[in-house]
Design goal:
cell membrane, Cation/H_exchanger_TM, mainly alpha, two-stranded antiparallel sheet, about 550 residues, sodium, Cation/H_exchanger_CPA1_bac
Length: about 550
């Protein structure tokens, strides 16, 4: 495409993303589904279509998406649930690839075991973006959110490695050795982890530079690409390097970054995530026309059989896996983080894990939407790969069925299962933490007052003490209300809602007065922006009306 066509396409894509986001807000329909359907419609319109370039996706789109997801994840929770995460992101991916490969080699004529395993590796890793978006909106419990995040962050590296191995076998690569390949896989995984740790440590050393919000943004934006490229140059897993770096940096950010840097960096990443995810789902839909054109050499029976095997394995193996892992001995049990009712901690003081309930297993079974990594993986196969067009159609069918089918039904399923996070417990935990933070601040004031005796300083500290005491009293009152709540929903607080309304009205009045000064020529725009930014920060910390707190 020419630069003008590229720009026009980009503007059109952003326009569609914005409109779909508005429709999602009005209807509650998943944005991923609407964008995919829009992409399919665009594919059949006259004009230029963009085909998925695997290297482009893996180098420029996947690293920032994975990095931002890792920043928003919990390193401690994922580490606590590591057995479950490994079960889903490694063992289940391998099982899916092998079962799909066996199915193709037995029932689809002309397709080898290696080619089938390559397809299985491509369709094995779920894309957590759509599932998390719907799950959060549906109020999915935090333990399931953590599991979906952990699985989505680590399964791509497993799938891409299996795909590489199967591709070598299917194309008759010379000097291929299973033993050597297993060794390469271990080295790639371990090396990717080490590269991620190294990049995160380097970013930690740059914390002095990160005090400036613009510098912090620049460092944050280049980090995922640096981790990915360094990993690939060292012939280890660049994907794992990005994920590990993101998890560690996200864990360190509250300690090593300033408040202003965190606010600005978070806003920038939300925008990048919003646009990249939208473009990804549009690209997925656009591939339908090209994929269908490659099926003319296959019989209907072959196509139906191939698609049936692929969809059957993807849709049935996941729930079967989750059920079977619950039947394993307790020492090998697939578990989620949480406290057992009769034994809340180990002798070392760490929380024990408890197994998935039947309802949780059902929800996790339906949280396996596939996305762009599946298509990027299958398109990364060389043009002379045996039955490449048939495999690409099967991969696209899986993406379309899971993205649309599971995407549209996931929220109703979560609601039907009654799997909503206990909002009262969440609000109680936040208010307990707020109370602890205020008490720590009051203790610091006591320490400072014991060291300084200047009258002006005493007045300033006394003023601060009164403000903190008012906040502490408010949190204690809110905790009393929450302790008496007998449902999972946060009880309404007319006083709290009224206080929010008054504070918002005050901020609006201040902002309007500043604008009147600017319009009257009494305040220049530069100073208006400084003062308006102060009000914006005050407004930012106010929770939305009617939301939990």
């Amino acid at each position: 495409m020419s630069p003008e066509e590229t720009l026009l396409f980009g503007l059109g894509a952003i326009a569609v993303i914005v409109v779909v986001h508005w429709i999602t807000g009005k209807t509650g329909l998943p944005a991923a589904v609407l964008l995919t359907v829009a992409g399919i419609g665009y594919a059949y319109l006259p004009g230029v279509n963009i085909e998925i370039e695997p290297e482009l996706i893996l180098t420029f789109i996947l690293p920032p998406l994975l990095y931002n997801a890792a920043l928003d994840s919990s390193l401690l929770d994922i580490r606590r649930n590591m057995r479950t995460v490994i079960s889903l992101s490694v063992a289940l991916v391998i099982a899916t690839a092998v079962v799909v490969g066996l199915g193709f080699s037995l029932f689809v004529g002309g397709v080898t075991l290696a080619a089938g395993i390559a397809l299985g590796a491509a369709v094995a890793p779920p894309d957590p973006v759509a599932a998390l978006a719907v799950g959060r909106k549906a109020g999915l419990p935090n333990n399931l959110i953590t599991l979906i995040q952990g699985e989505g962050l680590l399964n791509d590296a497993t799938a891409l490695t299996i795909l590489l191995v199967a591709g070598k076998v299917a194309t008759g690569a010379e000097h291929f050795s299973y033993k050597a390949t297993v060794g390469e896989f271990v080295i790639a995984a371990a090396g990717g982890v080490l590269v991620g740790v190294g990049v995160a440590y380097l970013v930690r050393l740059l914390r002095v530079l990160r005090a400036d919000p613009l510098t912090a943004n620049a460092i944050s934006l280049v980090t995922p690409f640096a981790a990915y490229l360094l990993g690939e140059k060292l012939h280890v897993s660049g994907v794992l390097a990005v994920v590990v770096a993101g998890l560690i940096i996200g864990h360190d950010t509250p300690r090593y970054a300033t408040g202003a840097s965190r606010l600005q960096t978070s806003a920038v990443w939300r925008l990048i995530d919003f646009l990249l995810e939208g473009i990804v789902f549009l690209l997925i839909g656009q591939q339908m026309k090209a994929v269908l054109q490659g099926l003319t050499v296959y019989s209907v029976t072959t196509i139906v059989t191939a698609v049936g095997i692929t969809l059957g394995v993807v849709l049935l193996l996941r729930p079967l896996w989750l059920v079977l892992t619950q039947l394993l001995p307790r020492s090998l049990h697939t578990r989620l983080g949480g406290e057992d009712e009769d034994d809340s901690a180990t002798p070392e003081g760490k929380r024990k894990e408890k197994s998935l309930s039947g309802r949780e297993s059902a929800a996790m079974s339906w949280a396996g939407t596939r996305g762009v990594i599946t298509l990027a993986a299958i398109y990364s196969l060389p043009g002379n790969f045996p039955n490449r067009d048939l495999l690409a159609f099967c991969a696209f069918a899986v993406v379309l069925v899971t993205l649309v089918g599971q995407g549209l039904t996931f929220a109703p399923l979560v609601k039907w299962l009654g799997l909503r996070a206990n909002q009262t417990d969440q609000a109680r935990l936040r208010n307990e933490a707020r109370s602890a933070a205020v008490r720590a601040a009051l203790n610091v004031i006591d320490d400072i007052q014991g060291e300084h005796h200047d009258h002006v300083e005493d007045e300033a500290m006394e003023t601060m003490r009164k403000q903190l005491q008012v906040r502490l009293d408010r949190y204690r009152h809110r905790l009393d209300v929450l302790e008496q709540a007998d449902s999972s929903e946060v009880p309404p607080s007319p006083q709290y809602e009224a206080a929010l309304m008054v504070r918002q009205a005050v901020i609006d009045a201040e902002r309007e007065e500043l604008l009147r000064w600017r319009d009257a020529g009494r305040l220049d725009d530069e100073n208006l922006r400084v003062l308006n930014r102060e009000l914006d920060h005050e407004e930012l910390v106010l929770p939305k009306r009617g939301k939990t707190h």
